[in-house]
Amino acid sequence: VGRLDKDTEGLLLLTNDGELTHRLTHPRYEIPKTYRVRLDRSLTPEALSRLREGIDIGEKRPATVDSFEVIHNQEIRVTLHEGRKREVKRIFSELGYRVVYLLRERYAFLDLEGLGTGEWRYLSDVEVEKLKQLVRLSHGN
User: What is the pLDDT of residue 141?
Assistant: First the structure.
C-alpha cells in the first residue's frame, strides 16, 4: 500500500487485503501521508507561498499539500492526501528544487516510531480496525 520510488525511504503497509489496499490508495478516502523532504537548496518565501496555493504539475487539477512545516532551510515536512505518482518530487521540481532525500514518515495515523531502517512490525488488531474504519470497511464508525 503506497508504493515508494527506489530512492525514497519510509513507511509501507503490506497486506493481502485487496479491498483495503484499493481504498487506502484511492483519493476519495483522503488518507493523509506525511513526508520529510530535503531539498538541494534553501526554500524561499516565494516557494512557500506557491506551495500554499497549489502547484500545476501538468494534470487536470493542481497538486496541493494539506499542510507543511519548515524544519530548517532545506528541509520541509509536507502532508498530502492524493498520492499521485511522484507527486512530492514533481511539486518541488515545478518550484525549481531538486529533492535530495525523501522519507514517508506517516501513513494515516501510523508512523515509524520505534523502527529503524529496514525494520518492520505487525499492526495490532486495533490498528487494522482503525484503518478499515477510515475507509468505511468497518461498521465501527
Answer: 52
